[in-house]
Write a structure and sequence with these properties.
Helices cover 48% and strands 12% of the residues. It is α/β, with parallel strands linked by helices. The strands form three sheets. It has an eight-stranded mixed β-sheet with strand order 10-9-11-8-12-13-14-15, with helices on both faces. It has a five-stranded antiparallel β-sheet with strand order 2-1-5-4-3. Strands 6-7 form a two-stranded antiparallel sheet. It is extended and about 115 Å long.
């Protein structure tokens, strides 16, 4: 039984609605709104099914008249006729009100009255009856079976005799040998006959035969000598020099003392290391930076688009050279005021899918993106002088930009100021697999927060990896050198809260939050140990840390290098936090920090894959080794690099 069936325009105007279950009208409003927010607006139309709480929603788009058909029913029901019903309703509704849509356009939608109740009930009854009526499966007769073609003799098995099926291959393998043996039999027979004849011959004849055999041998040896070529004497090889030759470096330095940078020793003890000269410009990197400003990724797509236009114009055949043939060749790829079909887009979408996969987008996600674009464009009427390739490419670019735009706007500075008004610290937890750069990017974010005037407490909750606490201690010392307390009225902007190794990470985080609340810190950054997504004990510990301390923001740190593996990591981290959490409403990942973005050139597909699979925004992008190498995601820059040939 259907819960509801609704037809509305892409502008949000409901044209007709059927409610199969008694209840308030809002019962179908919430699922449809969730479908619009999560699928239609986010360009995730690759699959025509969507689940919301206990309902399953199936939808179909009519791109020619900008309509959406949605049917909703309970998850536990297996309704096989839903796909047929939605296709029949789509066809009937279009045919019935085609003139109003074509002649009046938007005015026809706004002022039209759509009485579709009786037609829908008729189509619903037909669909239900078609699912019940099934053709009975007819059984095969004995004459149609394979067994009827066998004889009784072939089915009798004799003890000790191998089945014929097994001996077929052996017969086939030995057929060549049998053929060769059969060919040699006549030769043997003829030689035996000759021997019999020779036995009956006389002694005089034997003497003449010996003379004949001797002559034949001499002639045979002469022919063999003529065929043989003179063998050339091999040249004496040069004697190989024994031993290795020393390698000579062309750009190297022959003096080994110049290459020795180790400290000199006296009586076996190293001399005291001189104090480190700390250069702030080397740590910060960018001298022209604006304090507290997080720059976006550079966007250089406009010049490339102009260059592509120039090359396209230069590659067009002129009408003067080719005459009518050149003109028709130029207009061959133009659509010309006709609706697009799936066959028109298949070849272009296949190339687009291969291009996305080459740019490190996951194969499944690339396929879903192309399916979404196909459903978005199928049936849409194109203007004259518009190519299918440019239309599909533009639609794909718009979809990618929409995917990278977050559903939830994460404004950390605004949230910190809101937490300050409530006199509590803002808590951020970092999680991820081993070696992705959690501690390094935590230090970058600390520097960015300090540039904006906030005090930071770093909680060293990675009590597993050797050297994790010392790494954070070094970052804290360097950050304090960049912002000394003398410049902030004696206030230390960054401190490290540590309890050593082997302790409970959730307990250390709780103590650090209490300490930050007492000391008046604005932000607490919780560093956690790296863990693989399949390690159940460590994932349980992470879920416990998040459930006990309830951070304001949970950031997943992932590498742009790994590509498809980052998708698997992100999905399994989210699932583990949901499964192992002790809270009633488990806290999942809120955002992504994409590191090592400067090492992938234009293969930026990991950003698309990670945001598409989880709908989580990329909050920060790491682009280098210095503290200021932190950027906010620019969707247009990423899409421009992704679509670059």
């Amino acid at each position: 039984m259907l819960d509801f069936f609704t037809i509305f325009s892409k502008g949000g105007l409901v044209l007709w609605c059927f409610q199969g279950v008694r209840g308030p009208a809002a019962a179908c409003t919430a699922p449809v709104n969730a479908l619009i927010r999560s699928v239609l607006l986010q360009e995730r139309g690759g699959n025509n099914s969507f689940n919301h709480e206990s309902l399953t929603l199936k939808y179909k788009l009519d791109n020619q008249f900008e309509l959406v058909f949605v049917v909703g029913f309970q998850k536990i029901l297996t309704l096989t006729y839903v796909d047929k019903l939605i296709d029949d309703v789509h066809k009937e509704f279009r045919d019935k009100y085609r003139n109003e849509f074509q002649q009046k356009g938007i005015l026809g939608i706004l002022s039209g009255t759509f009485d579709f109740q009786e037609d829908f009930l008729h189509l619903l009854r037909e669909a239900e009856e078609s699912s019940k009526v099934r053709a009975p499966t007819a059984m095969k007769t004995f004459e149609q079976s394979v067994k009827s073609q066998k004889t009784v003799k072939s089915m009798i098995e004799i003890r000790g005799e191998k089945p014929k099926e097994k001996t077929k291959n052996k017969k086939n393998k030995g057929s060549k040998k049998e053929g060769a043996e059969a060919a040699t039999i006549p030769n043997k027979v003829s030689s035996a006959a000759k021997q019999n004849l020779s036995a009956t011959a006389g002694a005089g004849e034997e003497l003449s035969k010996d003379v004949i055999l001797q002559k034949n041998r001499e002639e045979f040896f002469k022919k063999q000598m003529r065929k043989e070529k003179p063998i050339k004497s091999p040249k004496p090889e040069a004697q190989k020099e024994k031993g290795k030759k020393p390698r000579v470096w062309e750009l190297g330095n022959a003096n080994a003392k110049d290459l020795d940078y180790s400290s000199s020793t006296t009586n076996g003890n190293a001399e005291a290391c001189p104090a480190e000269e700390y250069d702030a410009d080397m740590a910060v990197g960018d001298r022209d930076r604006e304090p507290g400003r997080l720059r976006e990724l550079e966007y250089e797509g406009e010049d490339e688009i102009e260059e592509e236009k120039v090359t396209q114009n230069s590659s067009k055949p002129s009408a003067k050279k080719g005459g009518l043939g050149g003109m028709f060749g130029m207009l061959k790829g133009l659509v010309g005021s006709k609706s697009l079909t799936r066959e028109d887009m298949d070849s272009v979408l296949e190339k687009m899918k291969d291009h996305l996969i080459a740019k490190n987008v996951a194969a499944d996600i690339a396929l879903q993106l192309c399916e979404s674009v196909a459903k978005k464009l199928e049936g849409k009427v194109m203007g004259t002088f518009t190519t299918v390739t440019s239309t599909v490419k533009q639609a794909l670019q718009e979809s990618l930009v929409q995917i990278l735009q977050p559903q939830r706007c994460v404004d950390i500075l605004r949230d910190i100021m809101d937490a300050q008004r409530h006199r509590r610290p803002y808590i951020v937890t970092f999680c991820g697999v081993n070696g992705v750069g959690k501690s390094t990017n935590l230090a970058k974010i600390s520097f960015w927060l300090m540039e904006n005037g906030f005090s930071v407490l770093i909680a060293a909750c990675d009590t597993f990896r050797a050297g994790a606490v010392e790494q954070l201690r070094t970052h804290t010392r360097r950050l304090n050198a960049l912002h000394p307390p003398e410049n902030h009225s004696g206030r230390t902007l960054v401190q490290l809260y540590e309890k050593g190794y082997g302790k409970d990470a959730a307990g250390i985080a709780m103590e650090a939050i209490a300490y930050a609340r007492n000391q008046g810190f604005d932000v607490v950054l919780v560093d956690t140990a790296g863990r693989m997504q399949d390690n159940a004990p460590l994932m349980t510990a992470l879920a416990k840390l998040i459930a006990v301390n309830t951070p304001d923001l949970v950031l997943f740190v992932g590498e742009a290098l790994v590509g498809n593996e980052a998708v698997d990591q992100l999905v399994k981290f989210n699932k583990a936090l949901d499964d192992y959490s002790i809270a009633q409403r488990p806290r999942l990942i809120d955002g992504i920090v994409l590191t090592k973005f400067d090492t992938i050139d234009d293969k930026v597909g990991a950003a698309i894959s990670m945001t598409y699979i989880t709908s989580k925004p990329i909050v920060f992008v790491g682009t280098g080794q210095t503290y200021c190498d932190l950027r906010s995601l620019n969707a247009k820059a990423v899409v421009a690099a992704l679509m670059k040939a």
